Amino acid sequence: MGRTSIAAAILGMVAMGAVCIAQSRRVASAPGASATELGDRYDERQGYVGGRWMEIKYGRPIKRGRDLFGPADYAEALNDGAPVWRAGANVSTRLVTEVPIVIGGKSVAPGEYTLFIGLQPEGWTPIVSRWAAQMSYDTNNKTALLGAFDYTPDKDVVRVPMKRETLAHSFEQLSWEFVDVSEKGGSLAVIWDNQMASAPFTVQR
Question: Domains of the chain: which residue ranges?
Answer without folding.
Answer: 3-203
